[in-house]
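PROTEIN DESIGN WORKSHEET
SECTION A - STRUCTURE
LENGTH: 200
TOKENS:
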């Protein structure tokens, strides 16, 4: 255990901290490595395959267009023609996806649903980045954001760019405090949006 603590301390370049802090910082560093974007890989295998690899590596699941079952296992990603499998839905429940990995989403054109639940690394910057991706502005129809403690009103408001968004569920987001402002913003910008709020 001491050896592991020393290795994680060296890898993270940290000062000497209690074991629990070393472990937390080590996992944060490892999660950042999992989120690193390999642009050459995206060119080689295409955006859907590269995004699938990123999402599954981080603990999320994906569902492909025309398929019922969710892809959960990185080692069983489908093979075959690279353009055959298009991501239709993403469930990032309990995953370690973070802002630095969101460039993986840039080339996706068929994503209709995204679920972010208990994502500890998701922050306002992530939702702002998501809202600026032109392909996702057109394709996303449904979003659920649940128990992501770093999300505030600023991040939620950025979703108004998703011009085809039909359903948005917001639940257990302690950083979201101006519910009435959100309701008014979405009524104005996305009048056909079904907005479900379960916020305290």
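SECTION B - SEQUENCE
RESIDUE ASSIGNMENT:
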């Amino acid at each position: 255990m001491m050896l592991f603590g020393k290795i994680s301390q060296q890898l993270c370049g940290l000062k000497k901290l209690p074991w629990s802090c070393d472990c937390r910082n080590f996992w944060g560093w490892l999660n950042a490595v999992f989120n690193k974007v390999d642009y050459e890989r995206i060119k080689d295998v295409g955006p859907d395959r590269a995004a699938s690899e990123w999402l599954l590596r981080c603990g999320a699941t994906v569902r492909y267009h025309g398929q019922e079952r969710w892809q959960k296992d990185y080692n069983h990603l489908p093979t075959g023609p690279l353009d055959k499998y298009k991501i239709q839905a993403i469930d990032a429940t309990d995953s370690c996806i973070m802002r630095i990995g969101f460039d993986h989403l840039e080339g996706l054109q068929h994503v209709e649903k995204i679920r972010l639940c208990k994502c500890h690394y998701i922050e306002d910057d992530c939702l702002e980045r998501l809202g600026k991706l032109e392909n996702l502005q057109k394709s996303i129809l449904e979003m659920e954001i649940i128990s992501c403690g770093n999300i505030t009103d600023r991040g939620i408001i950025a979703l108004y760019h998703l011009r085809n968004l039909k359903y948005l569920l917001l639940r257990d987001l302690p950083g979201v405090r101006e519910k009435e402002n959100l309701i008014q913003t979405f009524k104005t910008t996305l009048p056909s949006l079904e907005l479900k709020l379960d916020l305290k």
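SECTION C - NOTES
The longest helix spans residues 19-35.
DSSP finds eight helices and six strands in the chain.
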